[in-house]
Structures are given as C-alpha cells and as structure tokens.
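S.,

Sequence below, as promised.
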Amino acid sequence: MRASREVPVVVVGRPAQATSVDSVADDDAAGALLVVKHCVSLGHRRIAHIAGPADTSTGRARSMGLHQALARLGVTIAPALDVVTDTYAIAEGVRAARRLLMSGEPFSAVVTGNDLLALGAIDVLRENRIDCPAQVSVTGFNDLPMMDRVTPALTTVRVPQYAMGRAAAQLLMDQLLGTHGDAPGAQVRHVV
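The prediction came back faster than expected:
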C-alpha cells in the first residue's frame, strides 16, 4: 500500500505501525524457538534471559518467542533470571549480566536479545572467571558483522537481511507496477 502523498513505502526490519503500509521482518519468535531448542539440546534447564528493550518490536517479539518456546519445552525461567534492558548495547549487556550474577540464582545459559547484549554478558562472565562456554553458554541474535571473530565463538540467530531486502524490493516493485493486489490492508511478510 502507499503512505501519504501516494509514495510507495515498504518498512524493512519490523512490522509497520500503520495498517496501510507493507512491511518485511524476520520471524523473531521462530529465532527464539531455535535458540531455546539449542540450549535445551545441550542440557540447559537453568536459562537466564537478557531481553532487548520492551519498547521495541524486536525486544517484545524475541522475549515473547523465548517465553513461548520455554513453555512449549517445559522449561521455566526464574523471575530473577529475566532481565529487560533499556537499549541494545554492550554496556546494557554488562549491567544485565551483573544483575543476573548478583541475584544468586544459578544458571548455565544466557539467551540475549541481540549480539551486543551477548558481548556484554561474555565480558562480565570473563571478569568473574566464569568460563564461557564450559560453565555458561551465551547466545545472541542478529549475527552482526564480525561476530565470527569473537572468542569464544558466539552462537547467534542470523537475521536474513538479504532475503528481507529482496522481499521488500518485490513488494515495492508490486506497488510501482500496480500488481500489489486488491486486498485491503498491508502485506506483512516474515522471512526466516
């Protein structure tokens, strides 16, 4: 659909706020399920969570997906092990990981809302002489550039940016060529 002034618009990276605007986003809930299944397959049952900001669509979707996945697999998370951050930043990962350690609740894995939060958590584990991944596993989300250079290697969910770009370009071309369709409302495509 078109935004104001009949300008073709496609939002990429998260669902559009306006119901008349097309959007393409990754499937954050599916990504969270993959992470939780991976942790559980490694034997983790005491999983901590450093969530992204609750005022962002990605923070909400990834957190909700994680909680749904944990429930589906019969794993509970202690309230003290579920920390929400203010921003996606290394410093917030540090703050949240310190809070997890100060809670006194034992955990063997930390699932984070993105790779920067994971880097902060790894820094705190390292400064507390907790071996990652031997004692505590840490996962990220996004597979940011250069994550392959992090030691230890970070398990992270790859957001399919190229596929999202292709899907967005196709929606935009459909709008420009008038082949978008007659269905009312916007199209939302989730790319996995």
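The chain has a mean pLDDT of 89.

Coffee later?
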